[in-house]
Amino acid sequence: MGLFLLIVAGWITRIEDWRSYTPLASGGGRAIDDDAYETQEKPGGITRWLTTVDHKDIGLLYGLFGTIALAIGGIAVTLMRTELFSPESVLIQPEMYNSLMTSHGVTMLFLFGTPMISAFANYFIPLLIGADDMAFPRVNAIAFWLLPIAGVLIWIPFALLAVGVDPAQSGWTIYPPMSIEQDTLGLDLMLLGLHLSGISATMGAINFIATIFTERAPDVGWERLDIFSWTMLVQSGLILFAFPLLGSVLVMLLLDRNLGTTFFTTDGGGYILYQHLFWFFGHPEVYILVLPPMGLVSLILPRFAGRKLFGFKFVVYSTLAIGVLSFGVWAHHMFTTGIDPRIRAAFMAVSLAIAVPSAVKVFNWITTLWAGRLRLTVPMLFCIGFVSNFIIGGVTGVFLASIPVDQVLHATYYVVGHFHYIVMGAIGFALFAGVYYWFPLVSGRMYQRKLGLVHFWLSFIGTNVTFFAMILLGYGGMPRRYAEYLPAYAGLHQITSVGAFLLFIGGLVFLFNIVQSWLEGPRVEDGDPWNLKDDGLVTQEWTWFERKLETQLADGGEDASGDGAAMADGGSVTDDPDE
């Protein structure tokens, strides 16, 4: 371990000839200077990706890793929904179902959600604020390379089944006493992987805060900071307070499992202590995941509504309010544990109050749409889908904030439906909107609009069929986390599974569209492929892209994006590719 740390320290401090070592505040707020580093040659092939500290390269690596995690998590849940098509176990045994459920939750939250947000933030925040790079480029690279190690630790138990290593079966919340008494190396490996992912997120958060505070261009004051950067700043602050606590909890759990300590044993109510500590992280984690997607929608939606975001300051203030209030709601996950009724009432009040700043954002988005000139591009459709799904997810969450309602619905599929309306219906849709919106900038090519529309409608229909059926299952009393169930619930479970299959097919369409378009899509020959100039809504990353495109086309017309997608011969996009 000491040798490993020495190697890492040496790698951080070394100086390279090719691009991208930018010490803290080295720009002093300089605007982007392409001649300073963009024209310098980088290593080719795999060496570039293994040694890069360029924020755009690292953003692409985060995106690739997040896509792989999405595929693995999607396969796990598809197997689960196939099993749940029948009331009895026919495909997999209950033990494997529990392992898939655990792996799916951990993968989607820690290996897909947070890394995909980091992909957008790494690539675009320096471009949006006029910075050369992230404040700590090498720390940025290390933060990413911890993730593949974490992913291997979490996923490898499935590959070791043949040698007797069982995957974790604790659920993503890892509640004791089950997580202490479960005697399997797979759970220890998962805990170590989660710990590494938390370290990665914390390092990234420090970097984003330092970058936004110190690396902005002189003309980018706080009043001109874009809404996505605002949400990333608040999210990074939440990470600094939440993830170190999660790391401490994971270490204590490992000690209980392996060294006989008694932090979370049932004697003395340690399992209640665990829930308090875990949910002090766990509920801010929801906002860690949803705030940046809110920022993406707040940035993208006005571009296709033909007007600026209505009430920009109120969106910023509501973001700050969510960041503060998110640490005062954790015990609404514990209304059924028998805690003091006065404490429950206080947490109920704050849980209801935190819905207000979220509602402010919804009204801002709707008002932006109301008076706008809408263009129903694929990114815009995903933004509208986000707003629709977020309203359903938010309203169903308000019911769970009420103590009497929560005590009835807490352990049912209602909670699963509500949570997935937020995680998939809102967060997932916002991330897809970001991918489609910035794909021309990153790849230098345009995707296939028809396939994008197919992806949207499969996702929108699949989301609502799947998760609304779960809400109905919860109202009917169907408990969550069960591989087998009463035949009376079979009809709604089958509808849920059909919706999940639609989502899976939509994901395949998305992957095919992105890969095929990256390799063979029509070239982007205009630095403003969305015609944003017509409404005066061009942001700094598109200005950078236009300059980059003009320079590289003048030099021969290859690799217009500068990020690995060659500008091969072929058709060019129209003035408005999504019309």
UniProtKB/TrEMBL annotation:
Gene3D superfamilies, per database record: Cytochrome c oxidase-like, subunit I domain
Residue ranges with Low complexity bias: 562-571
Membrane topology according to the record: Multi-pass membrane protein
Transmembrane segment boundaries: 58-80, 106-129, 141-165, 185-209, 230-255, 286-302, 314-333, 345-366, 378-399, 419-439, 451-475, 495-515
UniProt keyword annotations, A-Z: Electron transport, Heme, Iron, Membrane, Metal-binding, Respiratory chain, Transmembrane, Transmembrane helix, Transport
Compartments where located: Membrane
GO cellular component: membrane
Keyword DNA repair: no
Pfam families on file: COX1
Sequence segments annotated as region (Disordered): 553-579
Domain of life per record: Archaea
Protein family membership: Belongs to the heme-copper respiratory oxidase family.
Protein name per Swiss-Prot or TrEMBL: Cbb3-type cytochrome c oxidase subunit I
